[in-house]
């Protein structure tokens, strides 16, 4: 995570202010519950809410001395609350605060990421509807295959990010648990009802059984899900990079007046945003591995996960947030060239209709083997002529072909509309409307 | 995946026989649907089911020539079916067969893995109930913290694998889709109702929009989920390895009569199974990265994912299946030493009760700061005496302590039962019963 | 590692026969040294070489019983050698055999990989010389930049694989050590001179200090190096995939007569080999992570690395060997289309010369800022005309441009030869000749 | 990379000041060379050195407008240099500056890391010599094996980090190249002698052939090497964590007076530094994957690597620097408990001598099989008595044993000195002295 690839909404989640604010709420709600249970005086709970507060600088100062962040926070809090502060944090362990806080931060981050995906979905849907019938060639292996539409292409990304949205909702639920269970998770010094109260107040669920910490399989699953989302970002970014290649140029990132593509070559307009997104995806994805390595903590916990999370927590959420919003903008502003799509489609002298001719031949009684051979030998001539030859003409002139399929039927095989008849079906499946 | 770490149930899924059997079913069901729609003769569909068949060797032989596995399969099939075979596969593309087959194989694999997890859950539950009240020390940072029970420890693993089970159910659903949509996913040459029919017959859902292939975010999510499960395997394996250390020896892998721990040192009994599981977990986890790299295929597809999946499909499912069953056996046969647990617990002269003394002091009016200092200075003496000193005696003799808390109350702070009072709560949360 | 992506030379290294043959040599050489030192009878050493032998099936049979592979091997060996066999393996530990054997296998594998790289380097050099002056456009960001030659492109890969060769030589040296140091590496029961003797006989160096095992940072470095080589494989594969794209088609994988590119579309010729290599590279690269996780073994060793190595040892070396040889063949047989290279180069109406015009303008006294603006505004017109406009003509017609640079000088800026003047320099640097 | 885990020396390398200072030097040296070649006026080169300068804030300001960092820098530079500035950067491309700068930064970082390793090596050597003969038990699989010394253990780490040092020297050389070759690496607009001059001045070697960029296999190798070093950090950290476990407690991280191990449990002294290092190692290691994914840039370059490097460049070097220095301190200040080492060694009633008894029996004429059985059956009794039984006494009392080996000889087998006789050999190998 670096400022260059950060948005303030997400970095704010990882600010000391937000962290200590959440710590404060955890401690205050826990004191409430303790008071309700008669463990601590009701006045103490009231005092925390009324007089409680903290200053980041003061906490830092204390931490430099005691080398323990939660103790530093509690000391600072006590300076505001006064004597009743000694009832705060009673029976709790630092991890109760730290892990529950991380759960809150990760759900806050998930909420922003969900909003990002919504923005991206909106952009994809708008552009998909706009280009529902913008015909272009479909490519497998980078080679022209058969016609499709740019709207269908965008629909595949819409469907993919809709799945990612569901996965993220799931991962948010998985990671959003509260643990207030004491030093080794036995509730020896704190009633389980405190945990239930804090969980409810913070919008979390109760961790059924914790050790000292919330189990890290939850976090591994969360980061793995973000890794999958990043991989989808890469797929869409790669698609656009391909479409912008000089020889293809079917779409282009928006290039503002006055922008410079290259310091040396004034003619350049490069897909730098999507190339950038490709890199960001690599970065986000890589953090899945340490998140998984964090699962196998020793016994009731060791603290090896902590340094990893201090880094990848902000790194991954901030970078992915930035990437998703950048991608939503790229899609929204993408310059599309339908004429180039059409020109490219027609580039290969009708080769894209080879399958239909094959089917016509088999329906005309030719064996699959022979039909394949007949079409292939004519198609290869078109390849070799670099698209300057015309498949239909060659087929008509091939006596073996014309013996099986009439010229009229052959012509019918080259109808573009044929390929578009189920676009409505696909759109209905993906967008729930025809 | 190597025979050493394989079970036949799972390797069978990846056998040529199973693969071609699924291919056959896809083609036969698709031909049925085509016949129902009037695209191909009903006799053709009937012929496929009645006369259809294949031989693995024959397919291999043909593939060596045509260098295309699906064409080889169809040729072999045609040798059985005869002339009607030309109606098979009509309008379909190889990926329709390959990707739908992979979806079936991965759901089959998921079913075995779910059964494995069930076996592991059963073993964990049985041993947890057995040792519900077997007291042992809880350790944070590898250092004695406070008492817990071995049953609670096992309950944390039960809860973790129960979560993993849910995640796998989800991942199975995610990856279990059927695509029969033709060369670039437009259904140009095949009616979407064929896809719907095949999906239903094979227990899959319909892929809303495919390109030539089923989108690989689904597979990435599947393998990421298996990576998380492998990480949980590592956590449980690591726990057992720790418990078996010579100095700890609270539990031990079953060691059969006649077994040899070391070729050189006849006295050795090593936790080799759980060390092995640690390695297997590393292997499974690593495959998440290429699975994620597979997502960003070019345009309507490239085939870079295929070689990866041919390897990690079997590798990951076979190895994880083996690991889960090995782990279930290790847990089921684990030799537990409650006396050693008790002995270790008492090893440190009562240090494990330091928090309660701290709380008693604060309740006795001492500030948190001072209370900490008082307990710590006595605790450090016990550390330095290597557990030969007694914390309770030291505290009683410390005038500052005894001024705040009576000897009687101090003694009450060293009660072991105090730590066990919520074990029932935890078990009720985890196992749904008290 | 699967048969589909394997070559027999490399798989042979990982066969039981080769492994046990190496074990035999280790034991026999060690017994020789022991005899020389007077620890065991000279007859024993002689008997091992003369009567020694093993059968894989017999070893498997014994291992099923004793569950220890080295003990099983020694038992089988004893069945051949007779009574003197009791002097074999004296003072050694299983890991002395296993780890030294792995070192031999990895150096054998490295030798094959070095030969593979040599084959690839030879193919790259031959094609580079062939196309030293085959002009094509250089592309940054997938966008036409400036002219280069296909030979220069191939030279970059030659240089990269030459670096990889050096790295592999280094990694081979790093991993090729012999340890015969006993149960915890102290040589308590075996003289260090035995280790020295075995190392020398097997072409290894002595491990300066082992625990029970050879330290795994060596293996991590080895697999990391293979991961880098795999990444270079991906770069070359990706380059070829790009060149074969329909719209680019400057080069093509060899497509044999009778080959079928697609079961459905007879016109297809797909870069399937290089796509396949892209996937193989992902697979090889991913194994770097578990190899690094293997480093932190507990104390004098745990066995968690073993299962990983049993899998990734063959997986990585076999797959990378296959990939390198496949790549050498692809390069050797690559069909190159110089005319298409030329046609693509000219596609953009001279935009590729924009930098030279920029320099001419600044040399003509125009500020860099203004010069950039002048060139860019004319270049953008060519972009918008999809290459149908001509940059030179536009510049000549631009009064601000012609005020600074004469038409004659402008024309000179569009000279292709200008870009080729240092190709000799580059070739001399890379291939050591001009 | 976060401030918590950063040292100012290393972060300074990644500061804008350092970066722009390097850019300035590259441009100034390049202008010198251009002047020497007569391409630009000598006054221009002089002016750059004399009047040249930049302000970070001003560059940022310009970049916000032109969205191109190198152009922003050059504009700022021109504001200082004046008119002659137009001769700066002539014929160069942004990547010439960026990539050569990164090479300088990575070699600067490598120099700090080498110094870190030296500090660690010094600490390891000092403690190894100090504890050369401090006897402790060697453990395989976490189980007591045979005696070794703590000095030997430290020597293994010394040897490992000495290897890492060599690897880093290699990686530094690999990554330290200079490229000034223009837009697609053909030197069309810049003489190769400029590159040679700049390389020499900056202490780099010449990149034999670049595209637009320095090939990323160099960087992948660099980060892979740091990943291996991080894995060694993890091994040493893990060793110390194990030694500090309550039940083992043979060594302990230094715990300062006034430090608090736990907010809740005043008795705790936790190995938090080495647990932290374990996490940092995971983080550093994970970045190897995106560094490898960066290799396969498209054609003459795409910019996907850039965002990754902007993050992992600082992340990895800063974090590893911090980790190495923390580790050097931990080793230097490690509190070692030789008495506990001795006590643990003796804990198992002499089991650690089982191999020698085995050898004595075979030398006494007993078959290896029988000897194993005889020792194992007595050893198991000691295990079961939890070390309260005595192996020597049991063996003496076993008639089958005493028939083959005399009591006197049995006693000799339990001699501790026997295991230490080659410690000198090992130290001579590792430290080059006896």
Automatic annotation (TrEMBL), chains A, B, C, D:
State the InterPro entries in the record. AdenyloSucc_lyase_C, Fumarase/histidase_N, Fumarate_lyase_CS, Fumarate_lyase_fam, Fumarate_lyase_N, L-Aspartase-like, Pur_lyase
GO molecular function, a single term: (S)-2-(5-amino-1-(5-phospho-D-ribosyl)imidazole-4-carboxamido) succinate lyase (fumarate-forming) activity
Q: Record's Gene3D superfamilies?
A: Fumarase/aspartase (C-terminal domain) (1.10.40.30), Fumarase/aspartase (Central domain) (1.20.200.10), Fumarase/aspartase (N-terminal domain) (1.10.275.10)
Biological process GO annotation list? 'de novo' AMP biosynthetic process; 'de novo' IMP biosynthetic process
Q: Which E.C. number(s) belong to this protein?
A: 4.3.2.2
Which residue numbers delimit the Adenylosuccinate lyase C-terminal domain?
349-431
Give the reactions, separated by semicolons, that this protein catalyses: N(6)-(1,2-dicarboxyethyl)-AMP = fumarate + AMP; (2S)-2-[5-amino-1-(5-phospho-beta-D-ribosyl)imidazole-4-carboxamido]succinate = 5-amino-1-(5-phospho-beta-D-ribosyl)imidazole-4-carboxamide + fumarate
Protein's UniProt keywords contain Lyase: yes
Entry superkingdom: Bacteria
Q: Which GO terms describe its cellular component?
A: cytosol
Any Pfam family: Lyase_1
Name the NCBIfam families for this protein. Answer: purB (TIGR00928)
The protein in question is named Adenylosuccinate lyase
Give the species. Minwuia thermotolerans
